[in-house]
């Protein structure tokens, strides 16, 4: 079915795979998304529960690196522990994972900034915290860059746990159709290529707008999240390289 020009995606390929050429925003191809899709591994969440694709062989491929099956077992455990959304009949939800070659403290320092999401989210032009002084229940007004089918989003902080590295927010207003949107981001330590790295998991649940399917709705949200995770990776890894270079220079 068509995306009806509301900014949701559509699939036209018989395989059902995400295709950059098929993502439509406001009825037009959105070229800034090119290059972001191959970076994340998608885990579906049908029938109110996460399902995990079968793994063939000894390795799974994530973000261009090879990781032993044990990594996938840890992903499953983290998702079961922190990302179990209750998905109603008129909603859809998914979870995405991302491995970043930067230590947890650095990545978390970006993720936790409820007051400055533009530090890594490429589609945010401005953010103003309206109430709450960055405590649970704080509300922010986010201005969205042109090119998306929205200009503002009003969002509430639901959880910010600096010890467990858990961030959760809900969308409570704005000129878009992502109603009852809720997301959880968790950050976990990993060793990647012999260095401290980070596993980031982001999950969401959202209402399916009238006139659109669950696939179309999730397809659009997935695209936005993948762009955010790609940008988070770029910012974090550049900073990590800079920090290592400075350390070497001081030795």
Could you explain the architecture of this structure?
The chain has 251 residues and is α+β, with helices and mostly antiparallel strands. The protein has a domain at 41-123 and 160-168 and 176-250: Alpha-D-Glucose-1,6-Bisphosphate, Chain A, domain 4 (2-Layer Sandwich). The protein has three helices and twelve strands, in the order βββββαβαββββββα. An eight-stranded antiparallel β-sheet has the order 3-6-12-11-10-9-8-7, with helices on both faces. Strands 1-2 form a two-stranded antiparallel ribbon. The protein has a two-stranded antiparallel sheet with strand order 4-5. Strand 4 and strand 5 (65-68) form a beta hairpin. The radius of gyration is 18 Å and the shape is globular. Mean pLDDT is 76; it is low at 1-67.
Which range does the strand content fall in? 25-35%
How many E-type strands? 12
* Mean pLDDT rating: 76
Class of the domain at 41-123 and 160-168 and 176-250, according to the CATH hierarchy? Alpha Beta
Strand order of the largest sheet: 3-6-12-11-10-9-8-7
Structural class: alpha+beta
CATH superfamily of the domain at 41-123 and 160-168 and 176-250: START domain
Tally the helices.
Answer: 3
Q: Quick one: biggest sheet? A: 8 strands, antiparallel
- Which architecture of the domain at 41-123 and 160-168 and 176-250 per CATH? 2-Layer Sandwich
Q: Helix share of residues?
A: 10-25%
CATH topology of the domain at 41-123 and 160-168 and 176-250: Alpha-D-Glucose-1,6-Bisphosphate, Chain A, domain 4
Unreliable segments of 5+ consecutive residues: 1-67
Shape, per Cα inertia axes: globular
Distance between the termini: 60 Å
The topology string of helices and strands comes to EEEEEHEHEEEEEEH
Rg from C-alpha positions?
A: 18 Å
């Amino acid at each position: 079915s068509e995306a009806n020009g509301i900014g949701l995606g559509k699939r036209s390929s018989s395989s059902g795979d995400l295709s950059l050429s098929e993502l439509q925003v406001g009825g037009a191809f959105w070229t800034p998304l090119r290059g972001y899709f191959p970076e994340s591994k998608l885990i579906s969440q049908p029938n109110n529960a996460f399902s995990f694709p079968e793994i063939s062989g000894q390795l799974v491929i994530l973000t261009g690196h090879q990781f032993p099956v044990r990594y996938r077992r840890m992903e499953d455990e983290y998702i079961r522990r922190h990302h179990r959304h209750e998905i109603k009949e008129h909603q859809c939800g998914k979870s995405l994972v991302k491995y970043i070659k930067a230590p947890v403290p650095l990545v978390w320092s970006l993720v936790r900034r409820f007051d400055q999401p533009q530090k890594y989210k490429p589609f945010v032009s401005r953010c103003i915290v309206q109430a709450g002084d960055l405590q649970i229940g704080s509300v922010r007004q986010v201005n969205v860059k042109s090119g998306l089918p929205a200009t503002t989003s009003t969002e509430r902080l639901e959880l910010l746990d600096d010890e467990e590295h858990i961030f959760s927010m809900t969308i409570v207003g704005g000129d878009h159709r992502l109603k009852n949107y809720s997301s959880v981001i968790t950050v976990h330590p990993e060793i990647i290529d012999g260095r401290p790295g980070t596993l980031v998991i982001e999950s969401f649940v959202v209402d399916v707008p009238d006139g659109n399917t669950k696939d179309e709705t999730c397809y659009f949200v997935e695209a936005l999240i993948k762009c955010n995770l790609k940008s988070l990776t770029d910012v974090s890894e550049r900073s990590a390289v800079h920090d290592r270079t400075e350390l070497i220079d001081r030795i």
